[in-house]
Amino acid sequence: MIDLRSDTVTKPTEAMRRAAYEAEVGDDVYGEDPTVTRLEEKAAELLGKEKALFVTSGTQGNQIAALTHCRPGDEVILEASSHIYIHEVGGFSTLANVQIRPIPGINGAMDPVEVKNTIRSENIHYPTTSLVCIENTHNLAGGAVLPLSNMQAIYQVAKVNNLQVHLDGARLFNAQVASGISVKEYAKNADTVQFCLSKGLGAPVGSIIAGTEAFIKRARKWRKMLGGGLRQVGIIAAPGLVALEENIEQLAEDHAHARIFAEGLATIDGIRVENKVETNIIIVNVKETEHTPETFVDALKSKGILAGVFGLDTVRFVTHYDVSREDIDKALIAIQAIV
Ligand code: TLP
Fold first, then answer.
1. Cα–Cα distance between 236 and 315 in angstroms, integer?
2. How far apart are CA 63 and CA 84, in angstroms?
3. pLDDT of residue 102
4. At the N or C end, where does the chain have fewer CB atoms within 10 A?
5. pTM surpassing 0.85?
6. Has domain 7-246 been given CATH number 3.40.640.10?
7. Domain 249-338 - what CATH class?
8. What distance in angstroms lies between residue 139's CA and the mean position of ligand 1's atoms?
9. Which residue's CA is the nearest one to ligand 1's atom 3?
10. Are 7-246 and 249-338 the same fold in CATH?
C-alpha cells in the first residue's frame, strides 16, 4: 500500500528506533528525565521561547493552550476551517469551557480587520475575548503557508486589545521549508506555539507547546490533569530529538513530490486540484468524475493507494518521507485508471 492519507502515517526511522532504545530516562513528573528536558530545551531554542513542554499530541497541545490562556466563559477567535474548530472533537468548549467565534479566512488567513471587529467590547452581556488562534501551515486550506505579514498584523491587533495569540503550528516546519522564513520568525507573532513531531518530521508520538516560563509552568499542571504525567518519557522524546536534528530539511522533498503529483493530476481529465500546493497537501475535487469522494477512495484502495475523503467533493493526498518519487508515479497511474 502507498499511504497518502496523511503525514501522520510515517514510520519511525532506524535512527529514531535506536534513539528510543538507548534513551537515558528518569521520572518526568519529578522533572528527572534528561532526554525530554533536552528535547524541550531544543524546541524552546528553535522557537525563540523561554520554555517548552512535550505533550502527547497536537490536539493535547492546543487544548492545553486554551485551558492555560482562557477562563471559562471567555471567547476565542479562530479561523472557520481551523483544525481546532473542525477536528478537535469540540474540546475547546468541553474542556476549557470557552465559546468559539469562527471567522472564515482566505487560504486559511483571517482578515486582521475582521479579527479586530470581532473582539468584544466591554458589556455585561458579552463574553470576554481572550485568545486568537491561528494555524500555519493551514491543513484544510491545503497546507497553505500563512503569510508572515498576516500573522504580524493579527498579532498587533491582539496586543493592542490585550489578547493572547496561540499558533497551531502542527506543520510549522513545513512553512519554514516552503517559505524560507524560520519558525522563530513566525513564532515572534504568537505568545504560544504548538508544533507536531509526529507529522512530516516522522516521530512516532508527540508535540511541543512553547511560551513563557510562567505559561509553561501552568501548562504542565494542565497536562498532568489531562493524564499527561509521562514518567520515563525519554523513550518517546528521543525520536522527537532525532526528528528535529535530522528530518527538517527532507520536508523540501515532500513538497517537491507534492508539486510533481499536482502537475500530473492536472493532466488527468475530470480531476481538479483545488489548492495551490505550497507544501505537502494536495486537495483534489472529483466532482467531474463518475465518483463520489468515497467511491474514489475505495477504487484507489483496490489499486494499492490510500487517500482520505476530505469534503463533499474532495479527496486529500499528503506526501511524506515514506512516499518515494516512484510511488507518486504509481499513484498517478492508478488515478488515471479509475477515472
Ligand atoms: N491533523 C490530522 C487529522 O487530525 C486531520 C491530519 O491527518 O492532518 N493541528 C493541525 C493543523 C493538524 O493538522 C493536526 C492533525 C492537529 C493539530 C492535531 O494533531 P494530533 O493528531 O497530533 O492530535
1. 32
2. 8
3. 98
4. N
5. yes
6. yes
7. alpha beta
8. 8
9. 87
10. no
